[in-house]
Amino acid sequence: MDFRFKPDEIAFRQEVRDFIGKELPKELLTGETDDFDLSMEFRRKLGQKKWIGIGWEKEYGGLGAGPVLQMVFHEEMVYHNAPLDPQAYQVGPAIIHHGSDYLKKTFLAATANQEIFWCQGFSEPDAGSDLASLQTTAVKDGDEYVINGQKIWTSSAHRADYIHILTRSDPNAPKHRGISYFVLDMKTPGIQIQPLLDISGGHHFNQVFFDNVRVPTKNMIGEENRGWYVAMTTLENERSGIRDVARAARLLDDTFQALRDGEGIKGIRRDPIMMRKLTDLAVQVKVGRNLSYRVGWMQDRGLPIEEQAPMAKLFSSELQQRIAAVGMEMLGLYSQELGGSRYPFVHGGIPGSYLSGVSGTIAAGSSEINRNVMASRGLGLPRGY
C-alpha cells in the first residue's frame, strides 16, 4: 500500500481540525463534561456537513467520499475528544449492504443527520465473546416478531432512540444459523433499562430487558435466520482500529504533556528506563496507525478485511492499556487523582484511561476472539486451535 495521503485527503484533515477548533465546546474538548445535549448539538452540526455519513452514498445522507476520508474524519474526531455516535458506523453499513429499501429510506439519512441515536443489542450475560450463543428470542406472530430476553453492556441504551439487536429466531438451528437481526424502537412497550456503573463510577453501560416486545417484520435487517452474517458486516466496521489508535495517540500525547507540566514528575526525564518505555510506546502508536491505515486502504479498494480489521483493533486496544500503565507508573502517587485535581498536569485523563481501558480489550470482540479470527481466517489454522 501507499502510506502517503493525497492532497485532498490532507486538506480534509485540516478542515476537520479547523472545524473542531471552532465548533467543539471547550467543556467537551477538555473532558470536563459528558453533557449529552451539548454533544448532540455538536453532532448535528457534523450531520449538516454530511460528515457523519461521509463514506456513504449521497442518497443515504452522506458525501460518497469513500473509506479513506471517513477514516481520516474518525481519527481526528477521536484524537480531539470530539463526540461521535460509533453505532452509526456499525448499523449504517449493515443496512446499506443488507437492508431493505424501507430500512434504507427510514434510517440512513436520519442517522447521517444525527436525528436519531443508536445503541447495540449484541452481548448477553451468557453470550459475550461467544456471541453466537445468544438466547434472546424472536418468535414470529403474523407481521411481527415477539422478542423476549436480556442484553448487557449496552452502551448508551438510556439515551438511544433505536437499538440494532441480534435475536434467536430458530432455536433448533445450529447456533450461527438461527439468528435474526432487527432494528427496534427503544420506546416500544416491554423494554426496561437498568444502569451498570463502570469501574470509574461512570454510567455508560446498561442492561436491557425485553418482555414480549413487538417489532414489525419489515424491521429485519437481511434474511430471517441469516442475521449472523449481517452482523459480520457490523463487526468489521466496529474493528477498524482507527478510533482505538487515535485514542491511544491522544493518551500518549497527554502523558508527555503531564511530564512537561508536572513539577513533581519532571525527574522522570532523567530516568533512562522510563524514557525508553515512552519512546517505545511512541513507535507502537505509529505501528498501530499504519495497521489501521491499511484497513482503510483495503476498504477503499473493496478488498476483504477479515483478519486485518481484528489485527488493527487488537493491537490498538491493547496499546491503550500499555500507555495507561506506563502513565500510571510515571505519575506515581499522583495517579490516584481521578478528576478535579489541584494538580493541573493530571486532569484525571491518565488514571481514567487506566480504568476504562480494561473494557477496550473486551468490547468489539475480546482480544482472544480477535486472535482466533486472525488465526483461522488469516493463517488458515483450524477452529479451536
Can you walk through the features of this model?
- This protein has 385 residues and is of the alpha+beta class.
- Helix content is 46%, strand content 14%.
- It has a four-stranded mixed β-sheet. A four-stranded antiparallel β-sheet has the order 2-3-7-6, with no helix packed on it.
- The chain starts with 6 loop residues before the first helix and ends in a 7-residue tail after the last helix.
- The model has no long low-confidence stretch (mean pLDDT 88).
Write the H/E string, N to C.
HHHHHHEEEEEEEEHHHHHH
Overall pLDDT confidence:
88
Unreliable spans are none
Structural class: alpha+beta
What composes the largest sheet? 4 strands, mixed
Arrangement of strands in the largest sheet? 1-4-5-8
Intertermini distance: 31 Å
Portion of residues in beta strands equals: 5-15%
Total number of helices: 12
Helix content: 40-55%
Shape: globular
Radius of gyration: 21 Å
Tell me the number of strands. 8
Topology:
Layout lengths: L6 H17 L2 H4 L6 H13 L18 H13 L8 H11 L2 H12 L5 E4 L15 E5 L2 E8 L10 E7 L10 E7 L5 E7 L5 E14 L3 E2 L5 H12 L3 H20 L10 H29 L7 H24 L17 H12 L6 H12 L7
Parallel strand pairs: 1-4
Antiparallel strand pairs: 2-3, 3-7, 4-5, 5-8, 6-7
Helix pairs in contact: 1-4, 4-8, 5-6, 5-7, 8-9, 8-10, 8-11, 9-10, 10-11, 10-12
Question: Quick gist of this model?
Answer:
The chain is about 45% helix and about 15% strand. The protein contains twelve helices and eight strands.
